Every structure is written in C-alpha cells, then in structure tokens.
Amino acid sequence: MTKNELAERVAKKVGLTKKAGFDAVNSVFGSIREALLKGDKVVITGFGTFKVRTRATRKGRNPQTGGAIQISAHKLPGFTAGKTLRRLIK
C-alpha cells in the first residue's frame, strides 16, 4: 500500500475529501518524524513503537578491495511491532 492509497482509505473511512485524508496522513507521519528527531519514543498502543536506535562503531570489509574499514557509529529509526499487531499477523 502506498501513502496515497492509505490517504484515500483514511478519507473514505472518515468521510473526508482525498485532500483532507492526505493532510491527515502527512500530519501523523510528520509528528512521528518530529518526535524521532528530538530523540523521543513514539508508542502507538496496539500497533507498535518507533524509536531512535544507535549503532556502535564496528569493523567492516570493503567489498571491492576486501580491505578492512571502520564503520562509524550512527543513529537510525527503528520500529517494534506491538503484541496486538504481532498476534494479528500470525
């Protein structure tokens, strides 16, 4: 499902125009994005948790040369599915 399809479904279920549905979806994603940029955790009960994860510095290999390289530490977004969502998918 694409973002546009999600916006259309939201609009149809709530009885909004497509533009209003698209604005609602963008608002939710924007709020999640802003919270993650601040380093906050976003918990959506029954769905899951979004949080920023930190990967430590580690050693790797350059696939072209085979030489050892140092991969620096970095942050990335992570998602953990909630119990309810996991049960539904099983």
UniProtKB/TrEMBL annotation:
Asked if rRNA-binding is a keyword of the record, the answer is: no
Judging by the UniProt lineage, the source's domain of life is Bacteria
Q: Which GO terms describe its biological process?
A: chromosome condensation
Listed A to Z, the keywords are:
DNA condensation, DNA-binding
DNA-binding among keywords: yes
The record's listing under SUPFAM superfamilies reads: IHF-like DNA-binding proteins
Q: Which PROSITE patterns match?
A: HISTONE_LIKE (PS00045)
Name under which the protein is recorded: DNA-binding protein
The species this protein belongs to is Candidatus Curtissbacteria bacterium RIFCSPHIGHO2_01_FULL_41_11
Lineage, uppermost ranks: Bacteria, Candidatus Curtissiibacteriota
